[in-house]
Amino acid sequence: MATIDTNRSFSDVSVGSGFTGMIASLLGTVQAWNDARITRKSLSRLSVRELDDIGLCRGDIDMIANRGVRN
Known about the structure:
Elements: H1 19-44, H2 48-53, H3 61-65
């Protein structure tokens, strides 16, 4: 099984206050939501046996998918 690393970081970008900071924050939120959506969809497609092979159960999917989402 192949894995894809989709971590994103705005640490390289100088985010100031005002409009630029608001746009950067909005983009970060949308990207985190989309990453969680893709992760949730991918894990939901796995069978119970495949999830068990990687040490997960169906109840863990939301927790795993939402790890990088800002609250």
